[in-house]
Amino acid sequence: MNTIIRCAANHRSRMAAKQLIYPAAERNKDPILSVLQQYIEQGADKIFLEIASGSGQHVAHFAQQFPQILFYPSEYESRLLESIAAHTNGLTNVKRPLKIDITTDFHTWDGKITPESNVNFHKSLKLQDSSWGLRDINDLKALAEKNGIKLINIIDMPANNKTIIWKKMSITR
User: Fold this and answer.
1) Would 64 be classed as within a structural domain?
2) Which domain holds residue 84?
3) Is residue 4 part of a domain?
4) Is residue 69 part of a domain?
5) Residue 77 sits in a domain of what CATH number?
6) Which of 34, 38, 56, 99 has minimal CB crowding within 10 Å?
7) pLDDT > 70? residue 171
8) How many CB atoms lie within 10 A of CB 77?
9) Mean pLDDT in residue range 89-99
């Protein structure tokens, strides 16, 4: 019995060691949740795809609040995929994180990146990988429309962030 408990404890500590914790994600999870509560329809058989899930802190928080939703987190970096898996370990309504590359040509948000904190964030992304960076919302809209996805709303959030609500449109024949 001690061996089983020790193995379970070792597994939990390995998972916890892979969990990345970002203070900004902690600060933003409840304001984002408030927005999602306005847009997520009640009922079963709902699917939520989170693009660029980061550390996994948000999707783990949201999944606990919406047990009827099946969440698909996504990210590009392996260490972030591991962190997402660690944060969502044991949550039955969260699928294994998907590796998705959403790289598109960079421009700006409607012509200009503001404020300075977002300019600095963009630069930090570019330093990590030259293909990363903030994307122009008009480019994202065009790409989404080509794939049957409609922009529903852009909500200003604390600390100059935005929550962008997209919806996959029904295919009519």
Assistant:
1) yes
2) 26-102
3) no
4) yes
5) 3.40.50.150
6) 38
7) no
8) 14
9) 96
